[in-house]
Amino acid sequence: MSKILSNLPIEDLTQENDYIGIIEKGNLIKSFFLGHKHEFSEIKFFSIYGDWGSGKSTLMKYLEKKLRGSFNTFFFEAWQFESDANLANSLLEFLAKKSDTDVDSFLKNGSKLLEGFAKSVTFKTPVANFNMSTMLNHLDEQTFFELKEQFSRDFINWETQITKGEKAPKYNIIFIDDLDRCEPENVLNLLSAIKLFFTFGKKTIFFCGVDKKAVTEAVKTKYGEVVKANEYLEKVFDISFSMPQSLDVSKLVKQYFDENEKVNDKELGDSISNFFKDIHFQNPRRIKKILNKYLIIKRLKESNTSASLKLPNIIHNNSGTLFETYLTLYLLILNEFEPENYKLLFNFSAKRVNYNESLRKNYTSDNELKIASASIFNHIDERLINFKISSLTINKLKDVIYTFSPIKVDNMKSLAFNRIDSYLEDFNVLNKSYEYYFTLFVFKNENLLNDNSKSEYTLLDYKKMIANLI
Question: Residue 461's beta-bridge partner residues?
Fold first, then answer.
């Protein structure tokens, strides 16, 4: 039986469930770390770049498991300490606790240094500057140089303690995860503090999971236009890796669908994988979120209470249609990730206003605009959303395309909905949404409309169902 999947890193990673390509990428990075230990006295700060939900945590967990024994491994989940006033100090305490060593001086001097840093740090140029008067006020009788030198000695002493012994690993690797969940200021403070104070040793390296978009926002918040995000990242990290780009969505989707679930001799999981690809819905974390909701609907249909509920006509137990299965998934996606577009879905008044404005860019005279508008609007039946889906045949394709097409369009011409090539050429959207790609999907798969003879629902029913169900 299919089960709801969590957004936590995949612990039992295998070739069958590795839909991201973690194993291949992880083994490559593992080989690098194992083969370059002699250089870690100089090269100490590494990153793995990837978007939110792209699998950075899973890759780092895989690396931690594979490198354990060759390294002392530490996994610092920054987001869990987000409520702390000073993430760098939290990291210091985390390392002291996890290493179980005699580190009273390490903690005392380090905390003093990092608290002063947090209060005095400014961000005018990469990586960070100090308001020295604020720092000195915090340090009492010690100079900043003296405290920094003391922390350097303490850090090396900490390294020596946890790497001594015949069987002890001779190097440490500290993974920093969940930075993209933290506030921008905390992200920059932590990265700057690590770069400035935690790289004194000769046996410790750091490996950070980084969402460039999150860092870009953080840099903009602190630097404005003075510093570019790429410039900041180049100065912070010695070497950077990137998450795999060859995502195999089918491996993820098939965890939700039994191989015996088929439509026209094709596995339903394969059909849905292709659907996600066509509408450019490829983020693993987002896919899990939608398929978890889809699975809840599926289980509701199997329950004893389903008779009293109005549920989508998804394919299940030899009932349902493929079009309505796609429609259910699409509306779940739209409602979750483009809620404003979901609210405006089937809002023909707003569509008319926006489309007329877009037509005006190509038809300057009032007469030309009138003719262009008539060629689109006079032949569209806006009552379509109240018709049963069983009546939405290929004969009404133009109406269906108009009904689903995005409200927001930058430029369009009168023949935009006549044929698929016209839609691609004459319906121009700069920022393409799921709405745009779903409309294009329907255009490409028009035969789906001839397979809904048993449906009792309308398009409006579906919009209300999804909004009310989950």
Answer: none
Residue 323: closest CA among 447, 423, 419: 447
Q: CA angle, corner 116, sides to 111 and 118, nearest 5?
A: 95
Structure tokens that stand for 200 in this block: 């004194």
CB 190 within 8 A of CB 78: yes
Decide if 287 contacts 249 (C-beta within 8 A).
yes
Spell out the domains of the chain, with CATH numbers in brackets.
22-242 (3.40.50), 249-470 (no CATH)
Q: CA-to-CA distance for 20 and 61, rounded, in angstroms?
A: 14
Q: Please report, as a single letter, which amino acid is at residue 282.
A: Q
DSSP conformation letters of 279-339: TT---HHHHHHHHHHHHHHHHHHHSTTGGGS-----SBTTBS-HHHHHHHHHHHHHHHH-H
> Running DSSP on this structure, what letter comes out for residue 198?
T
pLDDT digits (tens, 9 = 90+) for 53-83: 888 999 999 999 999 999 999 999 988 887 7
CB 78 within 8 A of CB 119: no
Which of 190, 189, 183, 191 is CA-nearest to residue 240?
191
270-319 pLDDT, tens digit each: 999 999 999 999 988 899 999 999 999 998 888 866 667 888 999 988 78
- Please state, in angstroms and rounded to a whole number, the distance separating the CA atoms of residues 66 and 34: 10
What pLDDT score was predicted for residue 218? Answer: 77
**Spans of the chain, pLDDT less than 50:** 123, 132, 134-136
Task: For residue 92, give the nearest of 200, 165, 182, 215 by alpha carbon.
Answer: 200
CA distance 82 to 225: 26
Contact 45, 232 (CB under 8 A): no
How far apart, in whole angstroms, are the C-alpha atoms of residue 298 and residue 292?
A: 10
Tokens of 24: 């291949």
The gap between the terminal CA atoms of the chain, to the nearest Å, is 21
Q: Which amino acid is at 406?
A: P
Distance between CA atoms of 443 and 195, rounded to whole angstroms? 53
The answer to whether the bond into 127 is cis (omega within 30° of 0) is yes
Query: What are 191's two structure tokens?
Result: 């990265």
What tokens does 312 get? 């989508």
What does the block give as tokens for 442?
Answer: 């329907």
C-alpha dihedral (152, 157, 159, 161), degrees to nearest 10: -170
What is the predicted pLDDT for the residue at 136?
Answer: 47
Question: Which DSSP string corresponds to 21-38?
Answer: -HHHHHHHHHHHHHH-GG
